[in-house]
């Protein structure tokens, strides 16, 4: 990448580097079956049978308003919705296929409703678009039939053009399902050049099989190397689409822990909801999102504005984020009135509960003991303790223990 390109990339990424938390929405015909968004493929449902779901889908009007309000209440700063998943059904109006929400049963442009809802809450807008398509006759054939590939690439580029033209300013294009072609087959360089021409400020993920602006670790939180921007996408149970039989729900405690980890690694968390066919949000998500939002209302600065990782060691009661020489210790396993942290290599200048009273401490060699804390965790999701230290924060524990005469 040239210097100018890199500069432009940083300009476009500036909001995203500080966004930290977004809502992913997987919604499509599959919600009616309630068995994961891969149900068509996993159960080998024939296209002709699956297609009928387009004539029975009746989302309630403006469900997206509730999503956007929930996202806002959760402390999220952007949304990304599936405009077309692997099933091939378009939630937007298209001139390239009638297999879309306007021409079939919903009778409305669900993408337009989503965009309006996100904007009304001041949230940034992202479009998920699956390149892979189980419905289009060339969707699989394109792998070994050049004429089919050309037709399918034309179709794909045409749809992305529609999405980038018909909904005003977009913030993210989030490709997925880069099978069965490679970047050359998808003509991704040309595709993304078109996207940028239509949307000069947009950021593009890495799933058109070229790196573009950010990485997308899925179901794990792993920073990218070299300061490259990244966003971890995670489900609330183990499915993206509505799947009530999957009951492995994450808790608010889990989500706050994930936020701490993405913040420490300088990335974002894109947390998914799979709405019901009518667009309602699963109640398991509503409760958790609101709880997380309340927590962020108090502790937000320790997540949104704490972008640097520091060298840190694992320890049972919690872990850090930091900003300059202020360390935020997110204590999510509260040990009682005394909390000891080993291996801190900086002199501690002050300790306090975040936005709260000062804490007494002693620091001997590399053992820091905070005393006189409440017996019970003030915030069970994570109580943040703010530590003001001298110099660049660093924590390092060797393999052994300190002998008293070395102190
Ligand atoms: C995987 C799944 C897809 C889901 C996506 C979200 O690629 O195949 O269903 O939409 O992850 O990142």
Structure at a glance:
The protein has about 400 residues and is an alpha/beta fold. The protein has helices spanning about 5-15, 40, 45-50, 65-75, 110-120, 140, 145-165, 185, 190-200, 250-265, 285-300, 300-305; strands at about 20-25, 80-85, 125-130, 170-175, 205, 230-235, 270-275, 320-325, 325-330, 340, 350-355, 360-365, 365-370, 385-390.
Keywords, separated by commas or semicolons:
12 helices; 407 residues; 2 domains; binds alpha-D-glucopyranose; Immunoglobulin-like; elongated; TIM Barrel; seven-stranded parallel sheet; alpha/beta; four-stranded antiparallel sheet
Count of separate structural domains: 2
Name of the CATH first level of the largest domain: Alpha Beta
Order of helices and strands: HEHHHEHEHHEHHEEHEHHEEEEEEE
> Are there runs of 5+ residues with pLDDT below 50, and where?
none
| Class per helix and strand makeup | alpha/beta
> Helix segment count?
12
Order of strands, main sheet, comes to: 5-4-3-2-1-7-6
The coarse overall form would be elongated
Tell me the fraction of residues in β-strands, as a range: 15-25%
Oligomeric form of this entry? single chain
Query: How many β-strands, per DSSP?
Result: 14
Full CATH superfamily name of the largest domain: Glycosidases
From the alpha carbons, calculate the radius of gyration and give it in angstroms.
24 Å
- The first-to-last residue Cα distance is 51 Å
